[in-house]
Amino acid sequence: MGEWEDEEERAYFQSVISAFKYYRTYSLQRIAKSEQYFKSLPDHHQKLMECYLQHLNIIKNCVEANDYLIKMIIKDADYMFSNVNPVDQNNIQPERKSCYDPIITEILSEFPPDGKKPEDVKILVPGAGLGRLAFEIAKLGYTCQGNEFSLFMLLASQFVLNKCCNTNIHKVYPWVHQFVNNLKPEHQTQSVSFPDINPRDLSTNSSFTMAAGDFLEVYTEDNVWDCVATCFFIDCANNVAAFIETIYKILKPGGIWINLGPLLYHFSDVPQEDSIEPSYEVVRQIIVGLGFVIEKEKMDVSTSYAQNPNSMLQYQYRSVFFICRKCLNV
Amino acid sequence: MGEWEDEEERAYFQSVISAFKYYRTYSLQRIAKSEQYFKSLPDHHQKLMECYLQHLNIIKNCVEANDYLIKMIIKDADYMFSNVNPVDQNNIQPERKSCYDPIITEILSEFPPDGKKPEDVKILVPGAGLGRLAFEIAKLGYTCQGNEFSLFMLLASQFVLNKCCNTNIHKVYPWVHQFVNNLKPEHQTQSVSFPDINPRDLSTNSSFTMAAGDFLEVYTEDNVWDCVATCFFIDCANNVAAFIETIYKILKPGGIWINLGPLLYHFSDVPQEDSIEPSYEVVRQIIVGLGFVIEKEKMDVSTSYAQNPNSMLQYQYRSVFFICRKCLNV
């Protein structure tokens, strides 16, 4: 991924920075609206739920704390913007996801550390988000690159990887905007500390990079990767067949693709966006049709995603997990 | 509930009818957009998922079937509109909900059929939707009224209660618009038959009515009901305290309120709508503060709502269930 040089990219970058900057204003407006309505209620209603007004004040404090963090995250944005290789970094990041385990188990079994030297195994993680799965893989000694398109994610991962040099030095209030389905007021205002590991702990000879940009545009070279690991990623495509085809092409002959996730199709019903949403049965036909051999396949893998554990509404994905291999003779 | 006589109500009625009428056009446009994008893909991608195009055609047929049903539902709408008591009916309706069981169990235990004559027990079900819970209660012999505000619901319940005189005579495709998280194409196009019971099976001496209108406006008379049963209802309020206060007022002294549901707060973040969203802890303070005595209380009651059982994304509400009583001496 090169410089943010063209006008369109510059505009996208500015829009992301603006969204970050608007966070505080928008959030406080939202709270003020509830406050105003509350104060218009009959006095005896207000008295019955006096503590609700105090709760709205606590929420304001959480928003201020989140905004403080945002300001730190975007502080170096201009520097990053002018940097030739803005988010490539030999670094690391937090946020543990239970859904990484089956992927890592598979990598360890396919590329045992006592076999081929781990640093000679090249693993790509498209849709890397904050980079945690890629970091975990690099920590095991493999050469690992995370790829991410969203600047929201990239700015946050840059902050964690380059600015955090100890564990639990920052606090965020991830569920402060979930006004509904709370059993207790403190379920909305609970904080999470990060990073849960020190990004500087990665050994100096490990090879971990993050690459910014559109997966289909960044990865055009054939037969490069020993393994592509995708977690909650393939449904980020307008055309899922293009993603699968690219994964097939960039894998070395005999290389493997490990996938875990649902089929949420992020562009479905998004205005101005094209989208097709084939069921898993059809996705499977694409995989096989392109030449992959499916070696493992598991339905109904229970996974959650960024969930408030205390919420009265719980989501559960029944994800698909599979491993498939590009034929040796291509 | 009287006539739809004022201009505002007439306009609301027309907007609901328009929405029903627009269903087919909108749905087919949505499918055409995917079709168009699919046909713009490289030929070899189209070949890899040929059956997806056939699937889109099957979806069209499901939409046509749903639209046929909608036309039947709104056929008598004008007649209904001019009727003095548009949706009061001595009738019944379908759709079984597992979350009704704890409520019905409680009613049977509080008002045992071998005690006070069931027909002398007056039970109100606000937010009755299609009326099924109220129907089940009436079937047990109690005098039961369902109250519903949404004309979408009222039109559908009128159709089922007055036009369906046998079981499983109609088919609907409830999940045809869920384009994402399907394991197989047929999970999107599966049908559901209704009604699952014959609405005419209610004994002639039973007393079941549906009343249209805003709960806070329709129920203004004190000390009328032996029991108010609410299921996924109290979070439909702008101000939940007003709902709870009304429930308290309209209950006879010694009467009980049975509630099951989450706190989704339907007006939260809806533009032009006022909303406060107190947590359950605060809702509980309102209940006790108004004079109710809580007799039973259970958290974490696992309930689902209109869920596609085959979807790769499953929602689960951890509902609150409680029973509280209005003091005898008020």
UniProtKB/TrEMBL annotation, chains A, B:
Q: Which residues cross the membrane?
A: none
Tell me the lineage of the source organism: Eukaryota, Metazoa, Ecdysozoa, Arthropoda, Hexapoda
Q: Does the keyword Transcription apply?
A: no
Tell me the organism: Pediculus humanus subsp. corporis
Q: What molecular function terms (GO) are annotated for this protein?
A: carnosine N-methyltransferase activity
Q: Which Pfam families match?
A: CARME (PF07942)
| Name this polypeptide is given | carnosine N-methyltransferase
The UniProt family comment states: Belongs to the carnosine N-methyltransferase family.
| SUPFAM superfamilies, per database record | S-adenosyl-L-methionine-dependent methyltransferases
Question: What biological-process terms (Gene Ontology) are attached?
Answer: carnosine metabolic process; methylation
The EC number(s) given in the record are 2.1.1.22
Q: Name one GO cellular component term.
A: nucleus
Judging by the UniProt lineage, the source's domain of life is Eukaryota
Which top EC class is named for this enzyme in its record?
Answer: transferase
* Keywords linked to the UniProt accession: Methyltransferase, S-adenosyl-L-methionine, Transferase
